[in-house]
Sequence to fold (169 residues):
Amino acid sequence: MLNNFLLHIAAAGLCLPLVASAQGAALRVERDGRPPVSLTREALRRLPTDTVSLASHGDAPVRFRAVRLLDVMAAAGSPIDSLRLGRAGWIVVALATDGYSAVFSAAEIEPKLGPTRAWVAFERDGAPLTEKEAPFHVIVPTDAHGTRSARMVTNVRIFDALRPGAGTP
Fold:
């Protein structure tokens, strides 16, 4: 079953993120059946932000200024309530310029349903993200090993994995 899911993601083109320069970059949020929305760093700064600490690979914790992934989805016109959780297999995928992707079920990032907490970071320790992290860094401090923390993120795609042809760019 997992192999079928991974094949579906590959067939949907989710392994091929759009490339954006770090300067003036915008996060492109796409949802099946809707026009894409681009959110700049300035747009993210206007949303409610949190300071989130994250230690990875045994390093000292760093502090990120970040917006909850749920708030990014809502700002792009796809609030979690609009997904009708439980009736579909909604997937949220963060795509990075290096080909890395972080995959979430929409239900797991809904605080009433799942334990996962994910943010989209745009600053690190009070400064812009480094060149190796920019334009955006998805951080998931609730994951034990940081496997789904993705740097160089340019796109977020939201789709119903149960719908034929879902996720096709």
User: Anything to note?
Assistant: Confidence is low (pLDDT under 50) at residues 1-23.
